């Protein structure tokens, strides 16, 4: 118990003094995860809105696959991206393996299905409400997709939150494609795994506290924006 208390005190000291190594890992983690979520949001909204409005052969299968991909194991996503970016892969010439860009790509692969599936459901719910009105106005399918996404923008905040939660907590995929290289690709989650295995509990605990606080802060900020937007919309 004494060792844990001492480790906790040391961890708090690292946080309060803004330990340079800790800050560096934090900023890289946020850079990778927020970039991945931004890209995945654009892709996910487009896919989700399209699946909600357009009807085509095999649509049900596509929706089913999308739902299944929400639970895609991170190590599988990391392996696929690794094979694409390795020297023997089709994108090996880009030399992206073991870089933050590779980590962003891996997280995009993981997060996009989540945002797309949730966006599809949100747009389908709105379509049931507005379908007749939109079609009576002669709106094209593309215009309907854009209208649903705009009207459901506050609901889609939940999809973005779910995607961010998945990205910021990811370990396996970023470990495979990033390599957990110090000062280059070491994120909070990979650093926690490494420092714990080394027995450096204080630093691992400090990173864990920062990771939890970051996730809570981002979620609280987005939810506050959503509540404010809804209040303004109905004012």
In short:
The protein is mostly helical and 235 residues long. It has ten helices and no strands.
Topology:
Blueprint (H helix, E strand, L loop, with lengths): L1 H15 L3 H34 L5 H11 L4 H12 L14 H37 L4 H11 L4 H13 L3 H7 L9 H11 L2 H33 L2
Helix pairs in contact: 1-10, 2-5, 2-6, 2-7, 3-5, 4-5, 4-8, 5-6, 5-7, 5-8, 7-10, 9-10
Radius of gyration, CA atoms, in whole angstroms:
21 Å
According to CATH, the fold-level topology is MetI-like fold
* Main sheet overview: none
| Alpha-beta classification | mainly alpha
Given the structure, what is the number of helices?
Answer: 10
CATH class: Mainly Alpha
Outline the structure in words.
- The chain is mainly alpha-helical.
- The protein has one domain (2-233): Orthogonal Bundle (MetI-like fold), CATH 1.10.3720.
- The protein contains ten helices and no strands.
- It has helices at 2-16, 20-53, 59-69, 74-85, 100-136, 141-151, 156-168, 172-178, 188-198, 201-233.
- Helix 4 runs parallel beside helix 8.
- The longest helix is centred in the middle third of the chain and has 37 residues, at 100-136.
- The protein starts with a helix and ends with a helix.
- The model has no long low-confidence stretch (mean pLDDT 88).
């Amino acid at each position: 118990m004494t060792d844990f208390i001492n480790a906790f005190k040391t961890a708090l000291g690292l946080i309060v003094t803004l330990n340079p190594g800790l800050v560096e890992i934090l900023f890289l983690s946020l850079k990778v995860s927020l970039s991945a979520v931004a890209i995945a949001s654009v892709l996910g909204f487009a896919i989700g809105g399209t699946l909600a409005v357009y009807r085509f052969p095999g649509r049900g299968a596509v929706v089913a696959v999308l739902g299944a991909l929400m639970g895609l194991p991170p190590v599988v996503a990391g392996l696929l991206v690794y094979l694409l970016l390795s020297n023997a892969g089709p994108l090996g010439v880009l030399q992206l393996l073991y870089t933050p860009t590779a980590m962003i790509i891996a997280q995009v692969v993981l997060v996009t299905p989540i945002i797309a599936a949730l966006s599809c459901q949100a747009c389908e719910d709105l379509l049931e409400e507005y379908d007749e009105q939109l079609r009576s106005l002669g709106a094209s399918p593309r215009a309907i997709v854009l209208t649903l996404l705009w009207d459901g923008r506050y609901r889609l905040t939940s999809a973005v939150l779910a995607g961010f939660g998945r990205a910021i907590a990811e370990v396996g995929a970023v470990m495979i494609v990033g390599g957990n290289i110090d000062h280059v690709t070491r994120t909070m989650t990979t650093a926690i795994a490494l420092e714990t295995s080394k027995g450096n509990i204080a630093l691992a605990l400090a990173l864990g506290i920062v990771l939890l606080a970051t996730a809570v802060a981002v979620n609280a900020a987005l939810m506050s924006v959503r509540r404010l937007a809804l209040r303004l919309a109905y004012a």
